[in-house]
Known about the structure:
The complex is a heterodimer. By secondary structure, chain A is of the alpha/beta class. Helices cover 37% and strands 12% of the residues of chain A. In chain B, the strands form two sheets. Chain B has a three-stranded antiparallel sheet with strand order 2-3-4, with helices on one face. Chain B has a two-stranded antiparallel sheet with strand order 1-5. The complex binds iron/sulfur cluster (SF4) (2 copies).
Amino acid sequence: METSNINPPLWLLAELTYRCPLQCPYCSNPLKLEGSESELTTAQWIDVFTQAREMGAVQLGLSGGEPLLRKDLAELIREARALGYYSNLITSGIGLNAHKVADFRKSGLDHIQISFQASNEELNTWLSGSRKAIEQKLEMAREIKAQGYPMVLNFVTHKHNLDEVDKIIELCIELKADFVELATCKHYGWAFENRAHLLPTREQLERAEAVTNDYRRQLEAEGNPMQLIFVTPDYYEDVPVACMGGLGEIFLTVTPDGTALPCHSARILPMTFPNVKTTRLDQIWQASDGFMRFRDNAWMKEPCRSCANKTKDRGGCRCQAYMMTGDMYATDPLCSKSPDHHHIEAAVAQAYETKPVAKPILFRNPRNAKALQTL
Amino acid sequence: MSLKNCVPSLNPMYRLQWENYQEAYVLLYPEGMVKLNGSAGEIMAMVDGKRDVTAIATALSEKFPEAQGIEADIVEFIQHAAEKEWLQLPADAVQAP
Lengths: 375, 97
Ligand code: SF4
Ligand code: SF4
């Protein structure tokens, strides 16, 4: 493939830190918890922002972990604005206050997304591991709207909160969200470990989607511009979707230590990804093996290789294939044509199990991270 | 009040900017972007919350003297952009020009 055919990255996802005060069991971050020692410096981040902007990136996600733990956040926002990015702060809301909301606005932040675990205190507390979390989130959501930001509220949905989707939407209406993301949990990182606890049944999902559609009609009839985005879960699809709109097509993720990835979870793949500390971003995007390997369809095996769908779904998710089969070139097991599809069927069967799951749910905290490493 | 006399403003949900790489005006919003075509971008760029539609048309024909009789097209686009909620019109603006 010639480099001139490669579109620029439109999205730069800056994972500023893996540190986080919460411990969601559905977190898709790596199982290893890294502290601040290996994180990029302020100057290194600004250099990454500058290079990606020169290449054409315009959307910037400031995420983590919890990006508010970075003391230089306001400075990074200011630099991003000066470079012409549209910046999105993706936060749990923990560590935010009215003063920071105003300060970030002044620095040029465009939008804040707050993630919630659930609409009620009990469930939110259990999932996040913090009793004060929900109150803080509600207060900050109100503050964000009061200060004139566009606001997205994000709920990762799963077995434990899908049946309360109506209450979640009601809460979002009350908070005057502009967009609501009901994102069915994707099973990477901690969520993969906890899949038996999290994967909902098909009926749960269908009910939740029907409720969401009812609310869409209601909102439209009322002239309420709030938009509901229902991100469908892949375990119940027969055909996978192209991961990230195609690996190396739109998204460029940079992890806290500077590793550049074509997708947030690609780090688990048995290959080497370049680091922004040692390689320039255009080299990374246009020439590194980490970004080139899956850009075309030459790597595919059967049944993908001769499948009519291959240019559309690109054989599905490489991480999923690797996690379930140990082979990153395998067809995504989500696909009904995959010889490994039984992995998915087994996980789905588990979702219908009424007995409690034997393995305890693992919250994302240092103790559990250590236990996983010694396994 | 006719649409020609009303003053559109950009929906605060969006940010409009020129993108060198795309050689186009784009509308940016949370986690997304709309790339505008040439004339749509030029019209949007004239929306400043002060000019009414007639003034926008005048400003554009000054900027592009070769384009004449564009007012009807502009009115149509402003309506389209309001339906898309890119632009906000005063509450008393009549929908039909
Ligand atoms: S999913 Fe939860 S634990 Fe993971 S980074 Fe987000 S808030 Fe923190
Ligand atoms: S066989 Fe491969 S290319 Fe065909 S639908 Fe399944 S994952 Fe997609």
